[in-house]
């Protein structure tokens, strides 16, 4: 976790003003705990709320779309829908990705397309390394 309330506030501002913030660290749990805390504190800032996807195996685009479609309380396309980008293009939401080392190259491409077509979507990610997305901000634990 950040050392001070000011640092936590700066991270929340970075999520609200930027498009992608990735929290990196050697161990999964501290980064995951921080992104969950940030998502909890920021949920009311997004009209469509937050969606948290935790990955513990290799994830491709279909896995991401299926995970989003199956989240409890998430008004989303039916489970397993592949082309979720058009639906997401109209949303104001925070997409939280935990365990980003599990994303394959196709999933990263899908996230790039999502960011290009969905101006109201922000990504808050946790993993050992940055995602390599355009205008990504990185916070190292």
CATH class of the domain at 39-127: Alpha Beta
Straight-line N-to-C gap: 8 Å
Q: Characterize the overall form.
A: globular
Order of helices and strands: HEHEHHEHEE
Largest sheet: 5 strands, parallel
Radius of gyration: 14 Å
Roughly how much helix do the residues carry, as a percent range? 25-40%
Mean pLDDT: 87
Question: What portion of residues belong to β-strands?
Answer: 15-25%
- Trace the largest sheet across and list its strands: 2-3-4-1-5
The tally of strands reads 5
What is the CATH architecture assignment of the domain at 39-127? Answer: 2-Layer Sandwich
Question: Notable features of this structure?
Answer:
alpha/beta; 5-stranded parallel beta sheet; 5 helices; 20% strand
Structure description:
It is a single chain. The chain is an alpha/beta fold and 141 residues long. The chain has a domain at 39-127: Barnase, Chain D (2-Layer Sandwich), CATH 3.30.370. The chain is 38% helix and 20% strand. It has five helices and five strands, in the order αβαβααβαββ. It has a five-stranded parallel β-sheet with strand order 2-3-4-1-5, with helices on both faces. It is globular. It starts with a helix and ends with a strand.
């Amino acid at each position: 976790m950040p050392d001070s309330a000011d640092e936590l506030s700066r991270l929340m501002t970075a999520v609200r003003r930027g498009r992608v913030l990735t929290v990196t660290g050697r161990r999964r749990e501290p980064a995951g705990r921080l992104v969950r805390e940030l998502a909890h504190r920021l949920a009311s800032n997004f009209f469509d709320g937050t969606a948290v996807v935790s990955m513990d195996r290799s994830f491709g685009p279909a896995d991401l779309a299926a995970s989003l479609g199956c989240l409890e309380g998430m008004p989303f396309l039916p489970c397993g829908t592949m082309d979720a980008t058009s639906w997401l293009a109209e949303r104001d939401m925070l997409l939280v990705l935990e365990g980003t080392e599990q994303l394959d190259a196709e999933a990263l491409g899908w996230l790039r397309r999502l960011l290009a077509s969905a101006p109201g979507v922000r990504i808050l990610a946790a993993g050992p390394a940055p995602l390599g997305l355009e205008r990504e901000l990185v916070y190292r634990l």
